[in-house]
Design goal:
Length: 111
């Protein structure tokens, strides 16, 4: 499942920057971003096992979590918990996941 692989890779990439995040930020916004990513992964796995009727609300929740993740990542950049290069890399991955998720949501509503 490409969206799962992309989200899994995003988490691994984000986890890799843990040591560069200050201790103060690591236990606040970093932790919140990490939990949000794990919820997104969980939602994608859950949706992959559901019937088409059950998928729609799950995918909508994943989409909401993804939008919240965008805000948190931007916040990390704004408070300088991560640099602009890391922000750009993470944001590109989130955008791609968003496009994949949008296509999945659209396909469940059409069928």
């Amino acid at each position: 499942m490409p969206i799962f692989k992309k989200t899994y890779s995003l988490y691994k990439e984000f986890y890799g920057i843990r040591s560069s995040v200050s201790k103060q930020d690591r236990y606040t916004v970093y932790l919140r971003v990490e939990n949000s990513m794990l919820e997104i992964i969980e939602g994608i796995l859950l949706a992959s096992q559901q019937t088409k009727i059950e998928k729609s609300p799950t995918l909508e929740k994943v989409s909401l979590n993804l939008n919240f993740l965008r805000v948190l990542i931007r916040l990390m950049k704004d408070v300088k918990a991560i640099d602009i290069k890391k922000y750009s890399t993470l944001e590109e991955s989130i955008d791609e996941i968003g496009r994949m998720l949008g296509g999945w949501i659209k396909s469940t509503k059409e069928a």
